[in-house]
Amino acid sequence: MKILITAGPTYERIDPVRFIGNFSTGKMGFALAQACAERGFEVVLIAGVVHLQIQHANIKRIDVESAAQMYDAVMENFPECDMAIFCAAVADFTPETVYSQKVKRKDNDLIIKLKPTKDIAAAAGKTKRENQFIVGFALETNDEESNAIAKMQRKNSDMIVLNSLNDSGAGFGWDTNKVTMISKNGDKTALPLLSKKEVAEKIIDEIIKIKS
Ligand code: C5P
């Protein structure tokens, strides 16, 4: 089994010293990569800008910075994978033009025009073969379950992991997470607050259960 995992945030450059980013640390994606490697999967881990180390003979790590670079790395590697878990917090917008010199302070406002990035999970979903399996993540603030299900369908994923924003100890930066797994066949499993390692194990158990 070969699995592709995206993890962490992307950085979108404004000028040589500034970027637009987000608070993702990559912990959930790295926990998934570690758990998959320990089960003997071959892992391609595509990581945004994170401050994490990972060492395992089964893990090939590809470091990227921007959403565009992550897109290219995924498109190159997904065709030869059996599964993908899109765990990265990819920027949805990127500056239309990147200043080649550091932008100087001025008294008037600075307006930066942003253009949408490509949706990596959706693009992979479009190319998905019958025997490939895709897991997406969703972070919703309202109508969580119906939005997550709509997202799974729109991106042609087979399962979606809904992150809770309403529980302390869950989400960005924490070592714990509280998620609900929803699969294409309608199965729904709400997990309690667990370590990200335990959440990773449960997600992999669920994928194996659905695939076998
Ligand atoms: O649409 P939304 O950003 O809420 O979707 C979240 C899911 O889509 C996650 O699995 C995330 O990794 C993935 N995604 C992506 N490329 C984007 C935006 C989101 O792969 N540009």
Summarize the structure in short:
The chain has 212 residues and is an alpha/beta fold. Helices cover 27% and strands 27% of the residues.
Describe, in plain words, how this protein is organized in 3D.
There is one protein chain. The chain is of the alpha/beta class and 212 residues long. It is built from five helices and 14 strands. The strands form four sheets. Strands 5-4-1-6-9-10-12-13 form an eight-stranded mixed β-sheet, sandwiched between helices. A two-stranded antiparallel sheet has the order 2-3. A two-stranded antiparallel ribbon has the order 7-8. Helix 4 links the parallel strand 9 and strand 10. Helix 1 packs across helix 5. The longest helix has 16 residues. The protein is globular and about 60 Å long. It starts with a strand and ends with a helix. It binds cytidine-5'-monophosphate (C5P). The site of cytidine-5'-monophosphate has 15 residues, from helix 3 and strand 9.
Please supply descriptive tags for the structure shown above:
globular, 212 residues, 27% strand, binds cytidine-5'-monophosphate, alpha/beta
Helix and strand pattern: EEEHEEHEEEHEHEEEEEH
Q: Average pLDDT across residues? A: 95
The small molecules bound here are: cytidine-5'-monophosphate
Classification by helices and strands: alpha/beta
Which percent range describes the beta-strand content?
A: 25-35%
What value does the Rg take, in angstroms? 17 Å
Q: Report how far the terminal alpha carbons are from each other.
A: 13 Å
Number of strands: 14
Topology:
Layout: E1 2-7, E2 12-15, E3 18-20, H1 27-38, E4 42-47, E5 59-63, H2 67-77, E6 83-86, E7 93-95, E8 114-116, H3 120-127, E9 133-139, H4 144-154, E10 159-163, E11 176-177, E12 179-183, E13 188-190, E14 194-195, H5 196-211
Parallel strand pairs: 1-4, 1-6, 4-5, 6-9, 9-10
Antiparallel strand pairs: 2-3, 7-8, 10-12, 11-14, 12-13
Helix pairs in contact: 1-5
The structure holds cytidine-5'-monophosphate.
